[in-house]
Design goal:
Largest interface: A-B, 39 and 32 residues
Strand content of chain A: under 5%
Strand content of chain B: under 5%
Distance between the termini of chain B: 56 Å
Oligomer: heterodimer
Shape of chain A: elongated
Mean pLDDT of chain B: 83
Radius of gyration of chain B: 15 Å
Structural class of chain A: mainly alpha
Helix content of chain A: 40-55%
Number of domains of chain B: 1
Distance between the termini of chain A: 86 Å
Strand order of the largest sheet of chain A: 2-1-3-4
CATH architecture of chain B: Orthogonal Bundle
Number of helices of chain A: 27
Chain lengths: ~600, ~120
Amino acid sequence: MNFHPFILPFSLGAIVLFAIIIYKYVSWIKKLDRKQKYFVNKNMFTFKTIQATGEVIREALIHRNIYKKNPVLGYMHMSLAFGWFLLIVVGKTESSFYAGTFFEEPWLAIFFRYFAREPHEYFMATQFTFIMDFLLLVVLSGVLLAIIKRMRSKFMGMKKATKHSTFDRIALSALWWIFPLRLLAESTTAAITGNGGFLTGSLGNLMSGLPVQALELPLWWAYSTVLFAFFVALPFSRYMHIPTEVILIFLRKWGATAGEQYSGLSDIQINACSRCGICIDACQLNFAADINNVQSVYFIRDTRYHNLTDDIANNCLLCGRCTEACPVGIETTLIRQQMRNKAEIPGKHYYDYADVPDCNSKPEVVYFAGCMSHLTPSIIISMKKIFDAAGVKYWFMDEEKGLCCGRPMRQQGFVQQSKDLISKNMRMIHSSGAKVLVTSCPICYKSFRDEYVLEIPVLHHTEYIEKLIDSGKLELKNSGKSIVYHDPCELGRGCNVYDAPRAVLKEIGELRTSELEKENSLCCGGSLSNSVIDLATQTKIRDHGLEVLTASKPDILATACPLCKKSLVHGNKVIVKDIAEIVAVNIVNKKQPKKVQTAKNMNEFEVSYK
Amino acid sequence: MKNWGFKISKPRVLDFDTANLDAYNRLIEKVPSAHRCLMCGACTATCTANLHTTFNFRNCHLMFRRGQFEGLAEELDKCMLCGKCKLVCPRGVNTRAIIYNLRIVLSDLNYKKIEL
């Protein structure tokens, strides 16, 4: 039997590791909510499982997403993950050939060179030795890149690397030592027995002047001990992402989605975070406002170790840039939302005081301006003008006594209050019997789409205007102005509306692009979701955003959100207009529309806010 | 009794021996901009909840500053956190954060406890 006491630390570590992983898997799966369990059961034995396996190979082994982000960073992850995986698979095959059975001692593959001391006597021995040496070289190159990245993260296209906790550093050091020690141990054995390949053999020859007989066993012991240290640290460190990402990919493919309550899937997501720190570079609080302890990577770490503070959970714009950047696809903003959620008091109603009007007319369209639009009355006036010009019969739902849509409440975690507002608003919308609901505010729009149960379609005013143009009810003239469009977070990343506003703007002027657009667009800084930062910090975020947006010196900066407009206007850099306002002044009058009261100079682009 | 359309307010004498002024200092730590407030009332003038009821943020803030917590929690529950007050504030006070923090401080519920 191939046995030596130095295999004991490795074997013990491996047993502990597998026991903890199985325990964790079971406890997460138990915590999945009913809907998630239903989808898992439904799709487990379908084609989706095969698709998921393919994705596991692409993402967990080859790391295609990281490769797309930066090739060197991708190679580093691939060499470590895929290289080590192949080292295990090929090593196992080799040791099976050597032993002549598939059921040889499980540790034989790991310490193969020590036990297989006679060189090249089994099937394809030379080739196996070459492949194993080559794979070890690949993994070692990955380790070298990892060390370089620790020292100079800019080399891998990352401006900032994650600040790790002490425990993560221990696990990291153990991982870095595994492969150099393996190389040294195999080389000393090769120096003694001559069983090495092009790498270990050559290094063994170089070591011939050293007392290799005395060095051999200590090195194998060290290799085994480092493996033990890494295995035991793995489930409690960031390296838990290795076994967790696999299960996350399967669950996602099977159709499990995270709801607004914290569930087993959220547990899996926070454990699947590798703390790579790609979200740090995506975060505007980092690069525009120099706040460095609230990014998703730190938030998820704090959540996982149960020491999340209110200040970190609340210090986020919920703009969704980090979710877009995450190579693992963790729903960072959604988990933050789940962690903000507060307890509910059964049966309590908060807004019984609200006396909301029912609709008496029979409109085609319900128009909900939203609280923020009431602070930018020009948007409301423009929308009225557009409705009249298109000859649409509408009901302005919150003209006098409106309520909030409920989303700001929900963003702070007061779900019960939000539901209360939603039920009141829904009653109003249903009372109208209209065919479509139009809103001017992306925050309300997101709420209507995701949280309300409505029988009628909901459109943001940009989408609605696009429909009016397409159906010929609205004709616009080209003003010849150059326009840059700012994607509001909730409309773009939140609701995936990117094309409608651009299509409308192309009718009116020359649409220019900016550096960060669509999925990468910036937040204006005015986001309601952050209840920690003060006005000065918001101003920094806004000014940075304006810098990027106005790089091409457009005549007008267009946006589709009253809150974005309100924040950007105060930057005093460029004329900021909502799309509705731009449309309203460029309508071609087919028939004389009803006279609408407009504020002085409202029809002019040259309105200055200075 | 005949309803004359007005009522006699309760005398509101502040007793600084019993008033809890420390709570305001804790609020300032959380929301430093709170002390910039000059009680102009712009927040109340724009308030969405104020259209429907007598909810008055300026008054709530003032009462809290003076350490008068009676009935404040119920009053703050009327707010919808829509954030208009924050945008109109001429002094850049993060009024929305004040309400959020006051709710958590004043509520009987242990809001901070998050079930995992």
